[in-house]
Amino acid sequence: MTLPAPPPALSSRDVRAWRNSLFVVFALCGLGLASWAARIPAVSSSLDLSTADVGVLLFGLAIGSIVGILASGHLVALFGARAVMRWTLLLAPLGLAIAAVGATTLTSFAVTFAGLAIYGAGMGTCDVAMNVSGAANERVIDRTMMPIYHAFFSFGTMGGAALAALAELLAIPLTVHIGAVAVLMIVASIIVIPAVQSETILHGADAATAAAAAEQPAVDWRARLAIWRDPRTIFIGLIVLGMAFAEGSANDWLAYAMVEGHDTDEPTGAFVFWVFVTAMTAGRLLGVRVLDRFGRVPVLRVSAVLAAIGLLVLIFSPITWVAIVGVVLWGLGASLGFPVGMSAAADDARTAAARVSAVATIGYIAFLVGPPVIGLIGEQVGILGALLLVLVLVAVAGVVSGAAREPRAPVTLRP
User: Fold this and answer.
1) b/e string for 119-141 if b means 16 or more Cβ within 10 A?
2) Where are the domains of the chain?
3) What is the C-alpha to C-alpha distance for residues 265 and 168, in angstroms, rounded to an integer?
4) How far apart are CA 226 and CA 231, in angstroms?
5) What CATH architecture applies to the domain 215-404?
6) CA 361 to CA 367: how far, in whole Å?
7) d(Cα 298, Cα 372) in Å, to the nearest integer?
8) Which residues contact 259 (CB under 8 A, 6 or more apart)?
9) CATH class for domain 12-202?
């Protein structure tokens, strides 16, 4: 029997190049998402859509994302995270470009829907692959990195929103704007992805492990689906669900809540949303040192408390500036849950792809189901009252945060 050759040892330069490449990948994903989201009014105008029609159109993105996430665990296990990122960062921008052409040149709802489904499938699959690779890089570096990767996603969204606003100001056609973003994503990914290393660097080097790898080169699809029966998968998923719900509900409803619930004007509502995004980004950058010093579980519990306090202040304070303080606490509290959950899901390199895929699937439920649920509740009790649902899920995330505890034994790297 011929044992598989171990991957070569990584130099510090290789590890840094891998890290920097992932910074770019996360930022590109944020750039693409924000570039499209910020131009939705232009798409609605071009296709003459009602609010309900826009919701149906965006469901194409949701369907694609779920399909991509469900397939991602198997694809990463079979081909590796680097290969999956390479192909999805070609596929997703093409889908984005198709959606732009469908919305404007062809004025076709069906083509736009199909383009968004392709884009969602590519991004959903890439999301899992880049988190698996990021978690592996984090373990090699031996310091907390996942919040920084997700901060770069936030930087990408901020840049994408700014570019979209400039495109609107200069009356740049949607196809030109989105086409340029798609080309940038493809070219940048072609340049940086070769520096990404295989996550199998984390597999043990002992003879027994190598022999097992030779006999079972990859965990079969039944074993990957079995990860759903592991209670730790569900509990980590609840952490990600609660914090993703906190983040996603702010993206969709915060500006609206300030205008309708606190009687501010629309520019103030937009400014408060910017405050939230800035607090999220700062929390992810500053949270690295806090995580390294205190560990995941205490930080997640404190994060849940901060987010809960922030939500209570926003919901119940009649004073605008006090409500904005609550928004800052909400953003800081919600900043670390998703990246820490992804990192915890990838603790075991053997099941990383399957568990990250499962946890991401649970987390994406928040992004897909959250907005309409809050809207329906808000119709009955007002938008501020509806945000109490976010508070409940954040509390659940805090209660089950023990599931994210760091592994006791360090990972043995191949020489």
Assistant:
1) bbbbbbbbbbbbbbbbbbbbbbe
2) 12-202, 215-404
3) 21
4) 11
5) Up-down Bundle (1.20)
6) 10
7) 32
8) 265, 266, 268, 269
9) mainly alpha
Q: Model pTM?
A: 0.76
Domains 12-202 and 215-404 are alike in CATH topology: yes
- Which tokens sit at 40? 């939705």
**Residue 372: how many other CB atoms lie within 10 Å:** 11
Q: Is the dihedral of CA 269, 274, 275, 277 positive or negative?
A: positive
Question: For 8-50, where are the alpha helices, taking DSSP H only?
Answer: 12-37, 40-47
Q: Count other C-beta atoms under 10 Å from residue 186's C-beta.
A: 18
Q: What angle do CA 89, 94, 100 make, to 5 degrees?
A: 130
pLDDT digits (tens, 9 = 90+) for 36-66: 877 877 888 899 987 667 767 877 887 898 8
Q: Distance (Å, rounded) from C-alpha 44 to C-alpha 145? A: 38
Residues, the chain: 415
Rounded to whole angstroms, the Cα distance separating 28 from 11 reads 26
Tens of pLDDT, residues 263-301: 887 677 767 877 888 888 899 888 888 988 898 999 999
